[in-house]
Amino acid sequence: MDDTVANFTTVWFVVFVFGMVTFAAMVLVCGIRGFSDILDLFRTLREDDEVQADGVVDE
Amino acid sequence: MDSSIFLTNFTHADWAIVIVYLGATVAKGVWVNRYVGDLSDFIIAGRGLRIYLAVATMTGTEIGLVTVMYNAQEGFSSGPSAFIIGICWLVGMLVVGLTGFIIYPLRQFAVMTIPEYYELRFGRRSRVVGGAILALAGILNMGLFLQAGARFMRGVLGVESELGLKLLMTIMLGMVLLYTTFGGMVSVVITDYMQFVVLGVAMVVGTVWIVMHLGWENIVQAAVEQHGAGAVNPFHEGGYGPWYIVWMIYMGVAAGSLWATATTRALAAHSPQTAQRLYKWSSITFLSRVIIPVTWGAAALCFITQTPELTQAFLGEGAPAEAGQYAMPVFFARFFPTGFLGIIAAGMMAGFMSTHDSYLLCWASVITQDVVAPFYKVGNRGRQVAGIVAGVLGGVVVAGIVSWAFGRLAPQFAGLIGAVAGVPVALWLARRIPKVFEGEDLTERGRFILTRTLICLIGFFLLFWGLWYEAQMTLWTYMAVTGTIYLSGAFVCIAAGLYWKGATERGALIALCGGLLALLGIVPWKDWNVTWVTETSLERFVDPTNLAVITIALAAAGMLAGSLLWRSKPDAAPADEEADQ
Fold first, then answer.
1. How far does B473 lie from chain A, in Å, by closest CA?
2. CB within 8 Å of chain A, chain B residues 35-94
């Protein structure tokens, strides 16, 4: 391997590790917190339906 | 591909994992239909997305089976230097996320689709033309999704026959259509979330497994031996080259902010601030969605060079053009053990479905909301134009289908028979369509029905396009070219519309139509033996990279020239801004 190839090999490895670690962290955080967001979304949509069924018009 | 390469560790246990996982996904998609109250719930989930769910669902859509396939192909054919595409995405998304460029003011307008903004800022003609170009580019862009997805499943499942590939495409399409037509955006969000978690974990575990087993140095070394220094240095001769990287940086910013399936998440976000944060955080996953599959593709190359029968099939002289697409799935089928292979296959299939449902819903909604519905508000002349356009398009489609059907029976008369069938259809549509638009407005029920019908029609188009069309470039370049058809015009229209008071509708229309020039980039000139292009200097003009850069420059020049030559009405105020006051 010449120097340029060796340098790029190291650079891409750093980029690879950065991408993997941050992605794993995102999956963990958004996986856990996203679940409660889903419950919120269902609650919001259900409340909207109930309001519309009661004849109250959204502004 | 030679059928002997399709050996696999996929067993009945893996089938059980796939069936249970996909069954649960489809059932859940249909079940959440109960939460869809109106069209806003169907298209943008009632604007109820909060940040973590928004990031998960955006990533779920953007890390699908197709994303993995095209990035793995880049890794196989260009080595780790393809990471540069991920870095361009990271930079583009960060620029949008940190500055709120385009996304923040666009969310303030409280529009449901991007072309809706064209109407607010420029006028109805821009909305219809912009919507039609967006839908055309978007549908062409996903034209090879089904083909790529079926090739992955064929490689992993070890299906040897070509007929099996076609059956796989049909079955996968059927599953996608079933639950997209039922649940709309709410089911899309839930499916995307599940897929994000399952596929996210599987991707991390699988990648660590691969790199530890093959070794990073060996993966890079194999790429360098096969492709030279361009495999690690994107600027080196034989690598991507500077103009390609300029194009990718533009794509990172333009597609990051305006690719409709991603922007829909921003428009569905709880607030403009949430939309901006969504982009900031998603920049990381947009890097990873390239890094991880590119590593898989490069690792597949390393594995193939260590396996003599695969080396001949994938790298020998007679290797077919699609070999790069089969490399990663064939590698997975032999590398991962039973059980994990099932989880990967189930996650990928769910990814395939989540990408398709988002895209199908997005393009069908754009046609309904932005192309068809506005014609209920135009005068006689507008309705007549709609009739003529529908007549020409309908006539051409019918003539094409009939010609194709008779092509094998009586090839010498196929064109004539096609014309005989197409002309009456064109005339009937030209007379009928203006009368359809004489009503008051397209009702909400009408919009639901039309959107769902369009989802099915687009699905059938994907089936035919995937069976017939073979790209003469990598999958990613095909997608970047088709994306440029829309983005070159839309980016300049929306950026100028939001930040330049002098932008006019004439400038917007010139910019939008200018993007159509990029269509030349996907024409199979060599397959059609068009020698006046392929054997002259025009060949350089239709090269995807050159054509994309020229199209982007022309669209920007068109907006500038059109706006300076024709003045227009004042700006519209953002809806949220008015409501806040």
1. 25
2. 35-38, 41, 45-46, 48-56, 59, 80-81, 83, 86-87
Q: What's the per-residue H, E or C state across B88-102?
A: HHHHHHHHHHHHCCC
Judged on CB neighbours under 10 Å (0-12, 13-18, 19+), B446 is middle
- What does the block give as tokens for B367? 């046609």
SS3 B154: helix
Chain A residue numbers touching B196 (CB-CB < 8 A): 27, 30-31, 34
Can you tell me the distance from the alpha carbon of B314 to that of B388, in angstroms, rounded to the nearest whole number? Answer: 49
Quick count: other Cβ atoms within 10 Å of Cβ B81?
27
For chain A, the domains span: 24-51
- C-alpha of B115 from chain center: 17
CATH 1.20.1730.10 fits B3-12+51-316+330-355+374-378+437-580, yes or no: yes
Alpha helices in B144-259, H assignment, sequence order: 145-157, 162-214, 216-227, 242-258
CB-CB contact of B278 with B78 (8 Å): no
Query: Given pLDDT bands bounded at 50, 70 and 90, which one contains residue B192?
Result: confident
State how far the alpha carbon of B382 is from the alpha carbons of B189, B376, B447, B506, in Å. Answer: 37, 9, 20, 17
Domain boundaries, chain B: 3-12+51-316+330-355+374-378+437-580
pLDDT band of residue B532 (cuts 50, 70, 90) is confident
Query: Rounded to a whole number, what is the distance in Å from the CA of A58 to chain B's nearest CA?
Result: 12
- In this prediction the ipTM stands at 0.79
Output B112 or B173, whichever has higher pLDDT.
Answer: B173
Report CA dihedral (B552, B554, B556, B562) to the nearest 10 degrees: -150
Mean pLDDT of chain B: 84
Helices marked H in B306-322 — which ranges? 308-315
Put simply, the answer to whether B83 touches A13 (Cβ < 8 Å) is: no
The answer to whether B51 contacts A16, with C-beta atoms less than 8 Å apart, is: no
